[in-house]
Design brief:
Largest interface: A-B, 21 and 22 residues
Strand content of chain B: over 45%
Helix content of chain B: under 10%
Order of helices and strands of chain A: EEEEEEEEEEE
Largest sheet of chain A: 6 strands, mixed
Distance between the termini of chain A: 41 Å
Number of strands of chain A: 11
Largest sheet of chain B: 7 strands, mixed
Low-confidence stretches of chain B: none
Order of helices and strands of chain B: EEEEEEEEEEE
Strand content of chain A: over 45%
Oligomer: heterodimer
Distance between the termini of chain B: 31 Å
Low-confidence stretches of chain A: none
Chain lengths: ~110, ~120
Amino acid sequence: GENVEQHPSTLSVQEGDSAVIKCTYSDSASNYFPWYKQELGKGPQLIIDIRSNVGEKKDQRIAVTLNKTAKHFSLHITETQPEDSAVYFCAASYQKVTFGTGTKLQVIP
Amino acid sequence: DTEVTQTPKHLVMGMTNKKSLKCEQHMGHRAMYWYKQKAKKPPELMFVYSYEKLSINESVPSRFSPECPNSSLLNLHLHALQPEDSALYLCASSQFLSGRAENTGELFFGEGSRLTVL
C-alpha cells in the first residue's frame, strides 16, 4: 500500500518567516495530493491540494509543489502568522487517502 | 463552520457498554468515512461507504460496527470496547469515492467525537 513520509515533525518559525514542509510517497498510482491543517480540538481542514498533472499551485500565502518523478511534494507558507500555528498533514490519494505523520508548526510572535 | 456534524462531541463508556457515534452531512456527498485518530498521530482510515454500501473495511475489529442508513447519515456502533480504543473518531465525506475521474478528492471532516473507554 501507499506510504507517506513527512518532515519535519516539528517546526518553529518567527512570525513573518517562511515555513516549508516536505513529503514523499511510494505509490506511483497516487494522483491527488491534499494538505490538511488541524487546529487543536478540531477536525482536519483542507488548505490546498494538487493533482498529478500539475507541478505547482499557489493560493495567497500558501503554495504546493509536486515532483512526480521523484515522488515528493512540499508545502510552502510565506509571511507566517500566529494563526498558522497548527498540525499540518500531507496526504497522497488514489482510491483512499493516506496521511503523512504530521508537522506541528509553531509561529512565534 | 464544518458542514459535517458529529455527535456526541465527548463520550465516556465502560467496556461492557453499547453506544453509537453519529455523523450527518447535507452536501450531497456520496462517500462517507470513519477515521480513528490517536494523540499526535495522523487519522487512520477505518471504513468507507460509497453510495450507502460498505466499500472499504480496513480490518477493523468487529466491536466497531458501521451503518449508513441513508446518503446523509453515518453511524458507528460501539460494543465491548477496550481502553486502547480511546481516541478521537472523525467522520468525513467527499463528493465521490477517491479514484473516480469525477471526484474532487477533498475530504470534509467533522470536529470528531472524543471517546474514552474506562
